[in-house]
Amino acid sequence: MTPHPGTLHFGIPQHRLDGPPDAPVVVLGPSLGTSSDLWLPQLPALTRRWRVLRYDLPGHGGAPSSPGPYTVEGLAAGVALLLDRLRIAEAAYAGVSLGGAVGTALALLAPRRVASLVLCCTSPRFGDPGPWRERAALVRREGVEPVAATAAGRWFTPGFTGADPYVAMLRETDPEGYAGCCDALASYDATALLGDVTAPTLVIAGAQDGPTPPRGHADRLAEGIPGAELVVVDGAGHLAGAERPEVVTEAITAHLDRTWKGRE
What we know:
Layout: E1 15-18, E2 25-29, H1 43-47, E3 51-55, H2 72-85, E4 91-96, H3 98-109, E5 114-120, H4 129-142, H5 145-148, H6 151-155, H7 164-171, H8 175-186, E6 201-206, H9 214-224, E7 229-233, H10 240-243, H11 245-259
Parallel strand pairs: 2-3, 2-4, 4-5, 5-6, 6-7
Antiparallel strand pairs: 1-3
């Protein structure tokens, strides 16, 4: 599938494959400020039965930043090109926050390529553009440290003690790649298009998620996408898969079992 001529893309994303070579493929998309290692808690369960394709956003996880302007649709077009490069005709997709938005965009851009969809701690619209533009300007001016210093409070509940590895991912992110992804979030709004998503969809929300709380974000996805199921995970903030990995992993594998059967 070649992206529509009017869709800007950013080349083939940095990626890696794990799991049985002959198993159905599941693509995993990370959040703003994290690398593909965000999915390490889910990897053992997923790679037992599925071929897992993880990718990094531009400037994240050691990947180079790409010339902007960034858009969520452009990031999705890059994932479509990656599937072409790897000769993967159809895959399930699971993504967190920005990675979830990329999954929604991919399901709209190439519906026949997305067999099943998991949208984790994400939204059809991430609020007003102004704060994202301001954050992008801050990072371009001062680097990622100002946002890294407050990341644990945005991403996790106050009692969570395992934030350091995830904050370290943000500190290693290239400022221009981070800022460009903020610009992508600023301009993203798929609210009016959700009814066109045809993939069987699971929406996962952290009950204590500050950036994309269940009310006004996850519920809009679940209500807008035909037949979508919503699971709210108690005791979890924005990176629910890191904070409550067992619950999130079980929800994902159960959904994939129903919609994208793995290797027995």
